[in-house]
Amino acid sequence: MQVRCDKIWANRPPVGGLGWGSYGRGVNVEVTLLPGIGVRKDFPIKSGRRRIGVIDHRDGTLDLILSKADDPDVTEQLALSANEAAALANLLGAPQLVARLRAEHSDLEGVNTRQFPITRSSPYNGRVLGETEMRTRTKASIVAVMRAGQVIASPGPDFTFGAGDLLVIVGTAAGLDAAAQILSRG
Questions:
Q1: Domain 84-185: what homologous superfamily?
Q2: Whole-angstrom Cα distance, residue 142 to residue 165?
Q3: Residue (of 47, 57, 23) closest to 65 by Cα position
Q4: Is-contact 77 42, C-beta < 8 A?
Q5: Does the pLDDT of residue 26 top 70, yes or no?
Q6: CA 138 from centroid of its chain's CA atoms
Q7: Which pTM value belongs to this model?
């Protein structure tokens, strides 16, 4: 599906909460009101010829958009369900979080960081973190959970895991291997 929209803000200051905003390091996201539809949020990708973003519809649905190389106002759209949008957000967000933690621990020999998914078939899907006894059994720590693109830092023992969660765990190589076994087999 293709859609054409008119940008209502160019390089002007934001008005009424719309305009340009910084959502990441060095990336300015353009926010465009689409009357009767919702809000378009996009930014130019590195090549500078295309834009990528989302259309957040008033009805709560979300489209992933990628502009045509020759016309940034004409886009290809992919409608995403809430679960698909959450999964995509986790796929995009978790690697950056893990990379940041790895960089912070790079000078600490023996300290490793990995991410582990909670799948539908995981024995801990729908159960609380404390039931894993992760720290006691492995000496590894669950330091964050990525859920629907949001980072939940330092989850407590009463935190309930759900399918699609990505756990960020810090520990020794052996501890992380043991964590993988626990999360997949119980």
A1: Regulator of K+ conductance, C-terminal domain (3.30.70.1450)
A2: 12
A3: 57
A4: no
A5: no
A6: 27
A7: 0.52
45 token code pair: 């990708």
Distance CA 171, CA 112 (A): 5
Instruction: Tell me the backbone φ, ψ of residue 50, rounded to 5 degrees.
Output: -130, 160
Rounded Cα–Cα distance for residues 157 and 24 (Å): 31
The token duo for 142 is: 């669950």
Domain ranges across the chain: 2-80, 84-185
Out of 26-35, 50-59, 159-168, the most confident range is: 159-168
Cβ atoms of 116 and 169 closer than 8 Å: yes
Residues 6+ apart with CB under 8 A from 128: 157, 158, 159, 160, 161
- Cα 14 from Cα 9, distance rounded (Å): 8
**Largest Cα–Cα distance of the chain, in whole Å?**
57
